[in-house]
Amino acid sequence: MNRLPYPSDLSDDEWDLVEPLIPVHQGVSHPREVNLREIVNAILYWVDNGIKWRAMPHDLPNWSTVYDYYRRWVKIGLWDQINERLVKLVRLAEGRDEQPSLISIDSQSVRTSEKKGPEQGIDGHKCVKGRKRHIVVDILGMVLNCFVSAANMADIKAAVAVLGPVLETYVRLEKVLADQAYKGALGEIIKHVHHCILEVTKKLGEGFIPAPYRWVVERTHRWA
């Protein structure tokens, strides 16, 4: 790497974890001329700094090449594979089974600055116009899946979308913790389709009172 490092660059140890999952062949006949580690570093720089693709620094690969790899990797689910691998490694390091048996789901509505957009709406309950982020985490607070919708999408509908891949990937799951927004049909859906129990926690009182085990998903929202 013939440049000064950026804070978002992968360390050697981090690259060793990610490299085996990255496909070498991209469906082209000519030899690859780009450094895949630098492609990943460029994507991480884009995420970390919130820049436009065309604002990619000149000492990183060309923005159009980086964008092309990013879209291809999204299409094949590479980022999900990387996240799944990291979740398993962290859980094992914490002395836990690599597959969780308990997860939590929650949503958070966020105001957006755009005046128009396909994924916008008004969350009437929270009086927020924008988007809603739905996340599923394990007992350590690690994100297993994330789904972004318009803020007016019903939590139960979004829950089916965000929980489906998690319940299929982590076959050891037994219970899903959720708040009152998810009571109703969701419990029957995940029980009959995925043989998993939905436990809806009751409100413990006025203000913010951490619920046992479920508080970790609230913490993850704040970290994000």
UniProtKB/TrEMBL annotation:
All residue ranges annotated as the Insertion element IS402-like domain in the record: 10-82
InterPro entries in the record: IS402-like_dom, Transposase_11
Domain Transposase IS4-like span(s) in chain numbering: 99-223
GO molecular function: DNA binding; transposase activity
A biological process term (GO) from this entry: DNA transposition
Top-level division of the source organism's lineage: Bacteria
Name of the protein in question: IS5 family transposase
Organism annotation: Adonisia turfae CCMR0081
